[in-house]
Amino acid sequence: MENTGVETKPKKYAGILLHPTSFAGPYGIGDLGQGAYNFVDFLQRSGLNAWQALPLGHTGFGDSPYQPFSAFAGQPLIISLDDLKGLGLLFDDDFRDMPQWNPEDISYGDVISWKTGLLRLAYERFTDENFNDRFTSDANKMKDLEDFMKTEGYWLDDYALFMAGKDYHNGMPWYMWEDTLKAPNAKEKKKWQKTLAKEIDYYKFIQYLFFSEWTALKKYANDKGISIIGDTPIFMAWDSVDVWTHKELFQLDSEGYPVVVAGVPPDYFSATGQLWGNPLYKWEEHTKTGYDWWFSRIKHQLDLTDFLRIDHFRGFDKYWAVPYGEETAMNGEWVEAPGLNFFTNLEATLGYHIPIIAEDLGEIDHSVIELRDRFSLPGMKILQFAFENPNENDFLPHNYTRNCVCYTGTHDNDTTLGWYNHAFEASKDKLRRYYSTDASDVCWVLIRACFGSVANMAIVPMQDVLCLDSWARFNTPGVGAGNWSWRYKPEALNDQLAARLYETAKMFGRY
């Protein structure tokens, strides 16, 4: 999967798919504190060398990592509160009224309200000249903050103004703001920056905290031989700073409303298709700029991770355009996108082989495969799909090529145990015969199959490692509520489980 210019056997990876929000910890949601480091230590004890996360962005309505407010900003909710204690910006007394959290489920509404209050309290203390904290007394940290705001200003300045604008308008989306902020000229923008200066500085400070913590965690993982696989959604949320700032790059009308929106036609997940509602790109405008926004975005993501999965890869070849206002995704059409030109220029810009994983699931035609293979991008193989289809199919391991990533399932699938329990008898029978098993330990049957495949990467959701049923499913496509909330308890990362993973990874040469 790595292009070194030398004919060598590619490194084989084995890892776990787990979003940081799922880490164990005392504060209602996983964060980048001790729970994150415990997970990395568990990966090392397990002989694994990869960790895949979902998009790390600042989530909006619905809490989906695939609908962020920004293509660049990090998720404030996973900033470690214990780190803020260590900086002298929070104290034990600040946690006296902490709710009693469910350790296996995130209550986003309560978490957002409570944790945002503590982040704002930490910022107030940071800006209080009479308050004695260890952040402002550390000259190196203050310089790091200043350097961060300068280096990341190309996206940070607009993001902070956008978020401050949302707060000023009680969370209303940007297309419902007054014209002076909805589409400000230079003079109006400067005026708003002055009016909202304190809020703007708050969001810049919070982003500094996120990126400082993430950079430290990534170094810790890399130093232990663990590569991080990131993820980025192909489309942006309508209510995002990127659409607000770069209206010319999206198919919007004069009032800022989409002309057409993204989705996919009927498929495995939905009989009426999936209507995502994201505004679609004006690809001709992106081409004129040399894909500047896109390439900045990808380079930024590759600074945070070692590999990058791009969700809905087929959208670079053709995208499904649905007229705005449709209630389902059925009445759309396929429209050509400039994938070949895009990736040719991206590879030239980066100067090395693109470390991208192509999410090539769903309705895929030959031109998508040609685009993927033209740049030697690994596609995705889902073992659950191999047995949904009673016939010979590309998801059966005996049909794999090395340049792919094998999963038992993804964040969009049911857990393997839940899938098996609800599968048709024909699917169960096919799996049992294929692996000569009674399927009494079906999760580990598929984990062994995943690790034992020829795929250069083998990635397994944590829920499957823990053999959890459907209650632990992370996302159900097309269902707007109750997703993204699963967490594991700290005792889940035990030595017995690590030993079983270690044995499996070593057995199949992935250690």
Structural account:
The protein is an alpha/beta fold. It has a domain at about 245-375. The chain is about 40% helix and about 10% strand. It is built from 19 helices and 12 strands. Strands 9-6-3-2-1-12-11-10 form an 8-stranded parallel sheet. It has a 4-stranded antiparallel sheet with strand order 5-4-7-8, with no helix packed on it. It is globular, with a radius of gyration of 23 Å.
Outline of the structure:
By secondary structure, this protein is of the alpha/beta class. 40% of the residues lie in helices and 11% in strands.
What are its keywords?
511 residues, alpha/beta, globular, disordered N terminus
| Fraction in beta strands | 5-15%
Structural class: alpha/beta
Q: Choose one word for the global shape.
A: globular
Helix share, percent: 40-55%
Number of contiguous helices: 19
Uncertain segments of ≥5 residues (pLDDT<50)?
1-7
- The overall average pLDDT, rounded, is 96
Distance between the termini: 16 Å
Strand order of the largest sheet: 9-6-3-2-1-12-11-10
Integer-rounded radius of gyration: 23 Å
Number of strands: 12
Biggest pleated-sheet summary: 8 strands, parallel
SSE diagram, text form:
Blueprint lengths: L12 E5 L16 H12 L4 E3 L28 H6 L21 H20 L11 H13 L1 H16 L10 H4 L3 H10 L1 H27 L3 E6 L8 H5 L14 E5 L9 E6 L3 H6 L3 H13 L2 E4 L7 E6 L9 E4 L2 H12 L5 E3 L7 H9 L4 E4 H6 L15 E4 L8 H7 L2 H11 L6 H11 L4 E5 H4 L29 H13 L4
Parallel strand pairs: 1-2, 1-12, 2-3, 3-6, 6-9, 10-11, 11-12
Antiparallel strand pairs: 4-5, 4-7, 7-8
